[in-house]
Amino acid sequence: MGVVDAVGSNVRQWKAGQRVGVGWNGGYCGYCDNCRRGNFFACQTATLVTGITSDGGYADYMIADASAVALVPDGMSAVDGAPLMCAGVTTFNCLRNSGARPGDVVAVLGLGGLGHLAVQFAAKAGFQTVAIARGSDEEALASKLGAHHYINNQSQDAAAELLKLGGAKVILATAPSAEAMAAVIGGLAVSGTLMVIGVGAPISVTPLQILLKDQSIKGWYSGTSIDSEDTLAFSVLSGVKSMNEVLPLERAAEGYDRMMSGKVRFRVVLTTGN
Fold first, then answer.
1. Which of 243, 236, 218, 264 is nearest to 142 (CA)?
2. Tens-digit pLDDT profile for residues 66-104
3. Which CATH number does 99-219 carry?
4. CATH code at 2-86+223-242
C-alpha cells in the first residue's frame, strides 16, 4: 500500500496523491478470451502475480499496471489494510461467491492467517459461523473473532458435529492439511461445498461420498483489484481487522522465518521509511 506518485499518459482512472494498494493480481490484458468473458484472474497473456512476475513487495517504490490498483478507504492505515489485500480478499471473495446465504451454516477450517479473517467475515456477513481448529486453546480466540460454535478436531469428530447443526452449506478450508479437509467433507449439507484455499497435499475423497448428496469441492483464487476494494470497504464498514506483527523492512528476513515456522500470530507486516 502507498500513494500514487505518477501515472502514465494513457491512465485516466488514477491520479497522483491517491492512497492505493496492489494485491495478489498484478493486472490483466483485457483482450484474451478469459478477460473478454470477465475472468480477469485467469488472463491468458498477462499472468501478473505481484512480487513474483510483476513489481511489488520488499520495496519503497513499485510500478503497477493500472488494472491492478485498488483505492484505499479514508481512515484505513497501510498496516491494517495490507493483509486485507492478501488473506483478506482471498477469504472475503471466496465466501461471497460460495453460494451461502445469511443464516446458513458456514464452517472455517483453520484459525491461522487466512482463517482468523474468514471467521470474522463469515460472522459479519450473517452466516452461522463455525470455527474448526486443533485443541481447546483456540476456542476463546474463535469466540472473540465472532464464531457461534467451536469444534476441536483434535478431540471431536468435526463432520459429526457439523451434521448436528444441520450440515455446513460451505466449509472454507484455510488450513493446508489434506487430512483435515478430507475429515470434514462428511459434515457438508446437501448441495454443500468445500471451498479450498489452503494449499497442501492431494485430498482423498470417495466419489460416492459427495455424489449422493450433490456436494462439491471447489478451489478459489484470490481476487482482482475491484475485489480488493470491496474487501477493504466491507472491513471498514463491519470492523474486520487482521491481527498483525509489525516489523521494519530491514527485519524482513526475520519476519519471513517466523511466517515459515508457523509462529506468526497472524500476519507479518513490513513497514518502510516512506
1. 243
2. 999 999 999 899 999 999 999 999 999 999 999 999 999
3. 3.40.50.720
4. 3.90.180.10
